[in-house]
What we know:
Blueprint: H1 2-19, H2 23-54, H3 57-72, H4 81-90, H5 96-107, H6 109-124, H7 128-147, H8 150-156, H9 160-184, H10 188-214, H11 224-252, H12 255-271, H13 273-286, H14 291-327, H15 335-341, H16 349-359, H17 363-388, H18 390-413
Helix pairs in contact: 2-9, 2-13, 3-11, 3-12, 4-5, 4-8, 4-11, 5-7, 6-7, 7-10, 8-9, 9-10, 11-12, 11-17, 12-15, 13-16, 14-15, 14-16, 15-18, 16-18, 17-18
Amino acid sequence: MTNIRQKIYKTLRWVEHYTKTDNVYLAKSGFWVSFGHVVAICSGLFVSLAFANLFPKESFGTYKFIVSITGLLGIFSLTGLGTSIVQSVARGFGGALRQGFRLNLKWSIGIFLGGLIFSTYYYINGNELLSFSFLLAGILTPFTNSAALYGAYLLGKKDFRRNSFYNSVRNLVPAIALIITLLLTQNLAVIITVYFLFAALVPLLLYYRAARIHRTNGERDPGLIPFSKHLSLMEIIGTIASQLDKILIFHYLGAAPLAIYAFAIAPVEQLQGGKKIFSTMIQPKMNERSFEELQRSSPRKSLLLIIYALCLALLWVIMAPYFYKFLFPQYLDSVVYSQIYSFTLLAVSGTMFNEILVAHKKTKELYLHRTVAPILQILLFLALLPRFGLMGLVVTHVLMRSLNGLALYYFVKFPFRIKSSS
Length: 422
């Protein structure tokens, strides 16, 4: 067994001459991160199967609309706090988790007020289901988002194994609860209640477990809030753009087309998890290397990522018809949209460039990228949806994600120069 490990170690080190990457670190951390991602994919797949076979399209479309509006309300919180906690913990601030939980809960008052406004609006207009759903979302989502910061803390500690296990529990338990509920009832109000309740309770339990194990009562980071505010402001327009397509479909085309669109992009978004795995592993490393070093090494690595993503996209184009025919025969209309949407995978290299900018706090570049690109995406949504329907939105995603990757590369290669005061 020892000889096998030594051979694997030597092989990984040998490959480093070509990849210019710490392959041993990636292999160790990547196993646990990948394990958690596989569990998430399986959980999502089984939930999707339950919704596809046990739930009408119109009801599922309404469910996705509620989830999208709830995601949109996230703009009223410190969405960049997780990234800041990773950096703070990596620098030795052990109290960042409890500090972040309290801060996020405090700053999430906007989510509660937004949920209350939506709830009141739909109650006045006679839609008690949506009214109840948004009230519940406004109450529970602040606790869900604040408790989920345990993941950022564990990443800062490079505790990939525990983070993977916790995330597996976070995905599995709500998935099982939803599937059991779908087997027992098609009442959307009950399903929404189960969704938001378990989405809050499970992270809260995991948060308290992580806080107790790591004894997160250490020193607080005085710089946690300023950079969190910057990241959160940057993400406002991006968050709107990420949810607006679903909201526009629901209002202009209806619940059933939204269900078709959701099932079209869902499998590809699961494949996008590779970006999340990569991002998770490289976040702590980016903080340890100089910006100049990353400028030199990143282009070669990005090319390897693009080749990998292209192979994955082409494979999905071939496999998608069989995948839907076998697992989701009710959603065969989603196939062509999903095939085209798969080319959003080519933007995987942008993940690395984004992490470089975040790790070295290139706020000017991040502000520019995270405002101009989402605004352009929103304008394309509004222009192309009425004329081309769902296809207009899918093409917009492919185009914008490709442009995003190129823009991030440009900002890393040619950052703004800070003028000297002398």
